[in-house]
Structures are given as structure tokens and as C-alpha cells.
Design brief:
Length: 115
């Protein structure tokens, strides 16, 4: 979250990258990673998996909204609802992928234990 905040506070972050990559893809990627980390942390706190996944998506979306609001105050930046939607979609992808990987690992461990 601190890294996202830092990059959002810059007027023209990573110009070489943003010239060649669609900015919504960058939003999807960074918020996918954030949701994976949040889901992992919440599950590590012994929350039920479904609760942790839903909470990770909600927290990621909320942080995306605050990030867009923050950008209103940064010179040469703007707030965009489409960026927030990309953040929320990325958060959903990250949380669901993390849940799927956990389930896959649990299934693989169960199969290995049956042999």
C-alpha cells in the first residue's frame, strides 16, 4: 500500500512504462498483488477463507477509491472511476486466484497423503 501511495503521489510516475503499457493493465496488476497479500494475511489471522477473500476484495476496492481521491491533489494527475474499477477487478482476480491456489495446494497435499 505504501508503494502504491508513493507512486500515486508522483506527477508522472514511470513515464517509460506508462507510454507503452495500458494504464488499466497497470492498475489490474498492482491491485491483484495487493489482494493476494491481503488475502494471505487475513487467512493467516485465522479468518475463514471465504470471509478473508471477500474482505480482501472489499479492502482492495476501498484502498483503490482512496488512492483515486488522493490523486485529485497531485499535480498533473486526475481521479478516474475507470481506474477504480480496474483496481477492484484486479483485487477480485488476486483474491480469487489466491483462494484457488490454496485449494489446489490442499488437494495436492491430500492426494499425496493418500499414496
Amino acid at each position: 500500500m505504501a508503494l502504491i501511495f508513493h507512486v500515486s503521489a508522483e506527477s508522472n510516475p514511470m513515464p517509460e512504462l506508462t507510454e507503452h503499457v495500458w494504464d488499466k493493465l497497470l492498475h489490474l496488476t498492482e491491485y491483484t498483488v495487493l489482494a493476494v497479500l491481503l488475502a494471505r494475511a487475513l487467512i493467516g489471522e485465522r479468518l475463514p477463507v471465504l470471509t478473508a477473500i471477500v474482505l480482501a476484495v472489499l479492502l482492495t476496492s476501498a484502498y483503490g477509491a482512496t488512492d483515486e481521491y488522493h490523486q485529485l491533489f497531485v499535480p498533473m494527475r486526475s481521479s478516474d472511476v475507470h481506474d477504480w474499477l480496474a483496481d477492484t477487478i484486479g483485487g477480485s482476480i488476486g483474491a480469487l486466484c489466491y483462494a484457488a491456489l490454496r485449494r489446489f495446494d490442499a488437494t495436492a497435499a491430500w492426494v499425496a497423503g493418500r499414496r
